[in-house]
């Protein structure tokens, strides 16, 4: 049972097309799934040429025409990039429009059950907004186009699994969004995801918002008024959860396996420890040698996993981008897709 995995092209001016070509050129990928690209065929061909890889592009306009052959890359062609106008490493409305359209098409294919899961390459938020699509990221696009109200971002690298109560909002706004019901919803989403990953009774740590988790109200009241009641209710519902835990100790324990999953209150609280273990910086050559870790949107009616790095405009077109994170994102999408296929058959 090989699920069909749709990989969005990402911003054509960034490293998305390059890491896709590198990932698809590995024979092992086709042993476990049926991958195809949703985006602009000429952009993928350009990346193949730049990398000097012996691959062809199989241009399709419906999934049924994909051949899923290691000698070619199936591209669901949206024909939305003019290579003569494209500037690698530059923000542009054209690139933003192309990236946005590839995401929307992948969502449409998944909702129509034409593909079993979607994996997203990095987009540039400024380019997408220049194109007139006012979203703060993939998560919000997916939620909007699937009409999903309760969703959250989960980051996974090795034994660290971090879900976020808030994500792409100003820090001042994030503090106002920390509410009991939202924290409970996120705990539930994380628990269900861990079970899907094979953890029967996951232990979950919930981070505090303020220093020392508020220290009894000395450093803010959100921990006592919103987070603590949420944890107590989650325990009453049967979840194995602790909190609010000061994040400076919670994540240190989590990376050693004490927690199966962690709830972060805002974007950087969860992203910083995650990237500390997943990203490897080469200081001598001033490049990111490796970027690992997977971003999974929970709560959707379809599957979406992603790399958790940006478009890396500074190295676009140089052939040095790492495909590690994309490989991992696809690896996570495959068992999730298989699990969903089996459940649909049972129903």
Automatic annotation (TrEMBL):
InterPro entries: PdxA_fam (IPR005255). The keyword Acyltransferase does not apply. One of its GO terms (molecular function) is 4-hydroxythreonine-4-phosphate dehydrogenase activity. Its EC number is 1.1.1.262. SUPFAM superfamilies: Isocitrate/Isopropylmalate dehydrogenase-like. Keywords: Metal-binding, NAD, Oxidoreductase. The keyword NAD applies. This is 4-hydroxythreonine-4-phosphate dehydrogenase PdxA. The gene is pdxA.
């Amino acid at each position: 049972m090989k699920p069909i995995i749709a990989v969005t092209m990402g911003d054509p001016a960034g490293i998305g097309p390059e890491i896709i070509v590198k990932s698809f050129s590995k024979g092992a990928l086709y042993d476990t799934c049926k991958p195809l690209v949703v985006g602009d065929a000429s952009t993928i061909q350009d990346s193949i040429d730049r990398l000097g890889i012996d691959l062809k592009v199989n241009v399709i306009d419906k999934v049924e025409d994909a051949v899923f052959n290691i000698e070619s890359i199936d591209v669901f062609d949206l024909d939305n990039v003019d290579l003569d106008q494209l500037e690698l490493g530059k923000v542009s409305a054209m690139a933003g429009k192309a990236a946005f359209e590839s995401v929307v098409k992948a969502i449409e294919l998944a909702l129509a059950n034409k593909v079993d899961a979607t994996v997203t390459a990095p987009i540039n938020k400024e380019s997408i907004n220049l194109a007139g699509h006012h979203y703060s990221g993939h998560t919000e696009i997916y939620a909007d186009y699937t009409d999903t109200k309760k969703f959250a971002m989960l980051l996974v690298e090795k034994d660290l699994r971090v879900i976020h109560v808030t994500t792409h909002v100003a820090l001042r706004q994030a503090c106002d969004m920390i509410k009991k019901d939202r924290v409970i919803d996120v705990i539930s989403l994380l628990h269900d995801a861990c079970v899907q990953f094979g953890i029967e009774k996951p232990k979950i740590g919930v981070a505090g918002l303020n220093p020392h988790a508020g220290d009894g109200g000395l450093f803010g009241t959100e921990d006592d008024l919103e987070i603590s009641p949420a944890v107590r209710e989650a325990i009453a519902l049967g979840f194995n959860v602790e909190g609010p835990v000061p994040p400076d100790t919670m994540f240190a324990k989590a990376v050693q396996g004490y927690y199966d999953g962690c709830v972060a209150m805002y974007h950087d609280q969860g992203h910083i420890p995650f990237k500390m273990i997943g990203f490897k910086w080469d200081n001598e050559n001033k490049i990111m040698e490796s970027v690992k870790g997977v971003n999974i949107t929970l709560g959707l009616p379809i599957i979406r996993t992603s790399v958790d790095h940006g478009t890396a405009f500074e190295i676009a077109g140089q052939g040095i981008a790492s495909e590690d994170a994309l490989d991992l994102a696809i690896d996570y999408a495959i068992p999730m897709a298989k699990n969903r296929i089996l459940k649909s058959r049972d129903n």
